[in-house]
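hey so i finally got around to running the thing on that chain from the lab meeting. sorry it took forever, my laptop kept dying and i had to restart like 3 times. anyway pasting the input first so we r on the same page abt which one it is
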Amino acid sequence: MPELSDEEHTARQKAVDFVRGSVAPSGDERDPEIERLNARYVAGQLSDSELLDALLAHGRSLPQGKRVQEYFTSFDEGINATKDR
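ok and heres what got predicted. didnt touch it at all, straight out
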């Protein structure tokens, strides 16, 4: 991937922070694999679609439950929030 502009880097960080804030009220700890994927996304190592694919693959590997569903609902909201920048 090409190097990210400062604006794109900031937008990606805001999207990740939005998702974190959306799931924080659940009180669950952050998933280390999701945090690694988010860091790669913010750094420009993953595109939007690559991050989504990786998150979905990770989510499918977890037992189904409320926590997983909350995260992925919030992730979609975060991605949609960045489309208008």
